[in-house]
Write a structure and sequence with these properties.
Elements: H1 32-38, H2 40-58, H3 61-66, E1 69-74, H4 77-84, H5 86-91, E2 97-101, H6 102-107, E3 122-127, H7 134-145, E4 149-154, H8 160-167, E5 171-174, H9 192-212, H10 217-228, H11 230-251, E6 258-262, H12 265-280, E7 285-289, H13 290-295, E8 306-310, H14 317-329, E9 333-337, E10 353-354, H15 365-383
Parallel strand pairs: 1-2, 1-3, 3-4, 4-5, 6-7, 6-8, 8-9, 9-10
């Protein structure tokens, strides 16, 4: 079979005056979100050998050979992780994969015929760090009822989703994430759990390719080396963009909304980045596909909306360049998030700001391209003295699985 082989693989922060809190609630004195971001390279290096062994154990040859397609389901960051790795499962794993929100899969897609022939064997991977998200549990339960192979990526073999998958003779991949020292008991916008899910999904895709014959053992090893090498790429990205992200946060303090755009795996980066803005500072933020921006946000009234154009400068390159020109022409404040090796005569030319990240293969871009946007969200929350998740005030609650949203206590429909 043809083999796809991988390619070979600081500015000081300016001072800023603190603003009074917008909510009357004092935010943590320390930028804990930024501290979590800085911990990500070490996290990847620490969990990599453990997660590799787990992926190798679960995706043995009989399982890999038996599947003809995969559904990747999750909510929130778990959905973003699934969407990030859709391309990797197709290219490296040699298996068609479709990422869906758990609600869409559990209540709609799973009701329709999922296979086209008796030999077409579908599998579903439910991603839930807590393992208690009802919709994702519902998705794997309903999939098992339809005769699909079920798997779960979760923090423990004892979580509710792990138990549900085990009851259907499925398989569980555990992704326990070590705690961060000095977390001060504050709930911080999710990054470590998201990255743990990403690493496990990427390792699963590589392992699938190995057992299905899409990748030789040598090629699989090279892709794993490039994956763990993203830890160093993240360190370099922090050096490149940390000060720039702080400066950009200062320059856009008056902004009232933010848009993040990306394509392919970086569409997931755009959705994840918007989520971190909402969690960190509470500002209205939207994640959008690059092409869809031209059909929708192009017509928005606010001309100077800060718009992050996230590009890997690979498959997305030509269209990202065209969209960047359109954004700047109509007055958007374009923030180009691109590999540091990219020649800024393209989409970055004339941009309001640039946030470079260390170059990596487009399939792994969400691991690295999300760093500058998370740093921006962390600094905006700090400058506005805004508490993460609004301190769960105003009717919000972290009790009972999310308070009024009932993430873990809603009705399970099977």
């Amino acid at each position: 079979m043809p083999q796809r082989l991988p390619p070979s693989v600081c500015r000081p922060a300016s001072a800023a005056q603190r603003l009074p809190p917008r909510t009357g609630i004092i935010a943590p004195a320390m930028n804990l979100f930024r501290e979590h971001i800085l911990s990500l390279p070490t996290l990847i290096e620490d969990v990599f050998p453990i997660f590799k062994a787990e992926a190798d154990r679960v995706f043995d040859e009989p399982l890999g050979q038996s599947l003809s397609r995969l559904y990747l389901i999750g909510c929130g960051d778990s959905h973003h992780a699934s969407l990030s790795t859709e391309l990797a499962f197709g290219v490296l794993g040699g298996i068609p994969a479709q990422a869906m929100t758990s609600m869409q899969f559990a209540r709609y897609a799973v009701r329709a015929p999922l296979t086209s022939s008796p030999n077409d064997k579908a599998g579903v991977i439910g991603v839930s760090v807590s393992g208690g998200v009802t919709r994702t549990i519902e998705g794997v339960v309903r999939a098992a009822q339809r005769g699909m192979t079920t798997l779960a990526i979760t923090s423990s073999a004892q979580t509710p989703i792990a138990k549900a998958v085990n009851e259907s003779q499925g398989r569980v991949l555990t992704t326990r994430v070590p705690d961060v020292p000095n977390a001060q008991g504050v709930q911080v916008p999710g990054s470590r759990s998201f990255f743990a899910s990403l690493v496990m999904l990427y390792l699963s895709a590589i392992r699938m390719g190995e057992v299905r014959g899409t990748l030789t053992a040598q090629a699989a090893g090279q892709w794993r080396e490039q994956l763990v090498g993203c830890a160093e790429a993240i360190r370099e990205t922090v050096k490149l963009s940390d000060g720039l992200a702080r400066t950009l946060a200062e320059r856009t303090l008056s902004a009232s909304e933010f848009v993040f755009c990306g394509a392919g795996p970086n569409y997931a980066t755009a959705l994840f980045s918007a989520a971190k803005m909402l969690e960190a500072s509470g500002d209205p933020a939207l994640g959008q596909d690059v092409e869809e921006w031209a059909h929708l946000q192009y017509f928005a009234k606010a001309e100077d909306t800060p718009t992050f154009l996230i590009s890997a400068q690979e498959r997305d390159s030509s269209r990202t360049g065209e969209i960047g020109v359109a954004m700047k022409t109509i007055g958007r404040r374009v923030i180009a998030v691109s590999p540091d090796s990219f020649d800024v005569t393209g989409a970055s030319a004339g941009a309001f700001a640039t946030l470079p990240y260390a170059a990596c293969d487009e399939m792994f871009a969400p691991l690295v391209a999300s760093i500058p946007t998370m740093l921006f969200a962390a600094y905006r929350a700090e400058l506005l003295n805004e508490p993460y998740f609004r301190n769960f005030g105003g009717g919000r609650s972290i009790e009972n699985g999310g308070g009024i949203s009932r993430i873990r206590t809603s009705e399970l429909v099977v």
